[in-house]
Amino acid sequence: MKKHLYLLMLTMIIVVSSELQVPAMMPEMAQDLGVDTKKIGLLVSIFALGMALGGPAIAYALRRRPPKQALLAVVAAYALPEMLAPVVHEYWWVLLMRILTGCLAGAAVGLSIVYATRLAPSTGKIGEAVSIVLSGIMVGTVIGLPVSHFIAGRWNWQATFYILGVAALVVFVVSLLALPPREAATAGDNAQDLRNLRLPRLWSRYLVSFLTIGAAYSAFSYFTPLLEGSAGFTADATTLILLAYGLCSLVGNLIVGKLTDKHAVGVLRFGHALLFVSLGVLALAGTVQLLVLTMVLVVGLAGVTMNPPLVTRVVEVGGTGNLVNTLHTSVITLGITVGTAVSAFAISSFGDDPAVAMWTGSAFALLAAVALAFQVNRRGKVSTSEAGRGRSVEAQADGISVREAELPSASNAP
Prior knowledge:
Elements: H1 2-24, H2 26-33, H3 37-61, H4 67-84, H5 91-119, H6 126-154, H7 157-178, H8 187-196, H9 200-220, H10 223-230, H11 235-284, H12 289-302, H13 307-318, H14 322-350, H15 355-377, E1 394-396, E2 399-401
Helix pairs in contact: 1-3, 1-5, 1-6, 1-7, 2-3, 3-5, 3-14, 4-5, 4-7, 5-6, 5-14, 6-7, 6-11, 6-13, 9-13, 9-14, 9-15, 11-12, 11-13, 11-15, 14-15
């Protein structure tokens, strides 16, 4: 199983590297395309918007296709606009290609998660399987920005697009040969996937995902000014600290994946508490280097690493359908965007101090903890992993399928 999951992880690495390639070379692109840096920054926002809106639309269009066929179609299609982006030397053309790659990237993430649930040997292993695939996000975050920056400096910004496009094609070919097939969802499964989106308890779990990832990114986006400005680290030291942050995220993700299937709620509670405390310490003691270094690494262990239990809790209620899980990816992307935007607004309103962003992240973490507590305690009992996965998903020889009759009722699941 794991070798197949690592192939899906490679897809995630490429997608995340693509998302980070523009921030890594904004000055070079602005100068070469004859626009200001603000317009290049729009390429980052438009990519995220494409992931949030276009991903679910593509997943819905591919809902009748087998998961392998759907994912490989998206990966192959993704490679084309990625390699075509530098062909026309005009800003509007690059903008259009970034919209397309963003849409396809959102679909690729959602479909990879769905495929991971179908490759899990049992429902009790879904969290571990998803964590392996999602570790590609951490690896892509660690290597995507510095590698793109290096390539742009060594050759030019266009080279990063060509290289990532070719890498996507290589992953496509290897996946075509190596990934095991799984049956397409039936008409009944697709109808249930749509019906699940009307479940209030599914949207309440989406809310926890939105707030949790918003907490991590509202702070992470301002780590550099905190480290270099408030704490007084050098630029080289900051680079090493951010690299260590990425490595902590990778390790934390794998640890969380091992715990998720039996302790999803407990992991989230502990993670929210760590985020709330560590970001609060960063806000209060941002000038104390040792404390700042320690807390940044703690955020790495307890921030985006909570993705596996978030995905697992969504699967428990909404099943493993394309649309439910791709929309979950959109919600997470929206959390990143809103968390960063709220921090930016707070900083502009309360002074140009990165500590404000740390308070924002801490507030998001507190809200996530409250939302989770409300869901878990509404009926006075936990209704996630401990309440029994078998009610919402059933392991089969060729994957995981959702049965309408086994979905938890509103009376026994939040």
